[in-house]
Amino acid sequence: MKIEIRPLFDEAVMKAELPVRKSAAKMLKLLQSLNLPELWQYSGLNFEKLHGMVEPSTGQQLYSLRVTGSTRAIACLINGPTLILISLHTQHDKAYRK
Q: Is 41 helix (H, G, I), strand (E, B) or coil?
């Protein structure tokens, strides 16, 4: 599976505390080793569809991935499959706000 990182995600990772940065790096390494069916089944990432939420510029469905216990990455999928990491939220509840 191909991974694409948007600048907003990258900036948030760089501003985050060291444990979050390390977890994000670990997540990226794991994502590179998975195909799409494995991503859906991998329980540690808790990959889930965010119902009713779409990426504003493309209209693509948004998904959430667990980075740490309280940190979530917001992503979308496009054909290929390509996982696009859009943003990083260190507070779990704020990740799900529209």
A: helix
Q: Going from the N-terminus, what domains does the chain have, and what CATH number goes with each? A: 2-92 (3.30.2310.20)
Quick count: other Cβ atoms within 10 Å of Cβ 63? 22
| Helices 7-15 and 18-33, axial angle in degrees (round to 10) | 140
DSSP 56: T
What's the whole-model pTM score? Answer: 0.89
The length of the chain, given as a count of residues: 98
Tens digit of pLDDT for each residue in 25-82?
A: 999 999 999 999 999 999 999 999 999 899 888 889 999 999 999 999 999 998 878 9
Name the residue among 57, 59, 58, 68 with its Cα closest to residue 95: 68
